[in-house]
Inverse folding.
């Protein structure tokens, strides 16, 4: 399976026919929020401290542990 349009777009950027920043903005605006987040996660663009896995941090764990003895 060829990626005809992807290759064409990349060639247009390389040839200076399209501005790289304009293409990035167009892609991000076109994509849904979930698609943008998924792309960021797949490419590891999201710093680890920004990811929320629903689990408490070790600081929260120790704070909660201390409350058991009060």
């Amino acid at each position: 399976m060829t990626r005809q349009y992807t290759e064409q777009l990349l060639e247009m950027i390389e040839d200076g026919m399209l501005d790289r920043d304009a293409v990035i903005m167009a892609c991000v605006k076109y994509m849904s929020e979930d698609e943008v987040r998924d792309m960021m996660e797949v490419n590891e663009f999201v710093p680890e401290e920004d990811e929320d896995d629903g689990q408490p941090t070790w600081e929260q764990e120790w704070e909660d542990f201390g409350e058991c003895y009060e």
